[in-house]
Design goal:
The chain is mostly beta strands. It has one helix and five strands; from the N terminus they run βββββα. The protein has one helix at 47-54; strands at 5-9, 12-15, 19-25, 29-34, 39-42. A three-stranded antiparallel β-sheet has the order 3-4-5, with helices on one face. The chain has a two-stranded antiparallel ribbon with strand order 1-2. The protein starts with a strand and ends with a helix.
């Protein structure tokens, strides 16, 4: 797999450069804000690793 893509959820594979923000919603729901202004969920087990790679 290319290092520019990352599986952030069991249903989503995202290009890292498209992630513009990471937010935490109520109920410990993690969301990735994309450059097209859409939000997609981040799996709880993927959040910590994604945040380290994104920063």
């Amino acid at each position: 797999m290319s290092p520019t893509f990352y599986r952030i959820h069991k249903s989503y594979l995202v290009k890292m450069s498209e992630i513009k923000e990471i937010t935490v919603a109520s109920g410990s729901k993690y969301m990735a804000g994309l450059s097209n202004e859409k939000f997609i969920p981040i799996g709880r087990t993927k959040y910590k690793d994604l945040k380290e790679k994104w920063i």
